[in-house]
Design a protein that fits this description.
alpha+beta, seven-stranded antiparallel β-sheet, 3 helices, single chain
Length: 173
């Protein structure tokens, strides 16, 4: 009678780290790092390109003139009070302009820009209509909730007579 005994397992070769393996690991490691960095950079630039003005040089040439005009506007003592209220999917923007004594300022052509703090792709420009003396209003069909920067301009003819910039928050539905 024969007794079959299982063959003894072959001895394993000890692990050897070769130059090709090290080179492959380095290429793979840095390939992952570079691809993750490229993805993050692409997403960051698409959401906030960092461009605030088209030509900083040209803007700087008019800086002192703009500061003088702003001092003239500030000397008038005018103020703006703004509200942004949810209406369905959209919102209503209301701005009240008043002089130093609290009297309404009327007869202006008012425009507003709602700027999103993170990306200019969500910015909204709107013309405000005067519905009561000193009360200017506009509606947005669809707008996201959150914090916005409200840039307001009031013009009399071609002259900008009032400029305001403030934070305003639109609550969730």
């Amino acid at each position: 009678m024969s007794c079959d005994t299982p063959a003894a397992p072959r001895p394993r070769r000890p692990f050897q780290l070769t130059g090709r393996m090290v080179a492959a690991m380095l290429v793979l490691f840095f390939g992952v790092i570079i691809s993750v960095n490229a993805t993050i950079m692409t997403v960051a630039l698409r959401t906030m390109p960092g461009v605030e003005t088209r030509s900083a040089y040209e803007d700087s040439q008019h800086f002192n003139e703009e500061i003088a005009r702003q001092h003239e506007r500030d000397a008038r003592g005018w103020s703006a009070a703004a509200t942004l209220a949810r209406q369905g999917e959209g919102a209503a923007l209301g701005v009240t302009l008043a002089d130093r004594l609290g009297q309404p300022l009327s007869g202006f052509t008012a425009t507003a820009r709602l700027r999103h703090p993170a990306t200019s792709a969500r910015d909204r420009d709107v013309a405000l209509g005067e519905h009561q003396p000193g009360r200017y209003e506009a509606r947005f069909d669809r707008i996201e909730a959150g914090s916005w920067i409200l840039e307001l301009q009031a013009r009399r003819g071609e002259e900008v007579v009032f400029v305001s910039r403030s934070r305003i928050t639109l609550p969730e539905k």
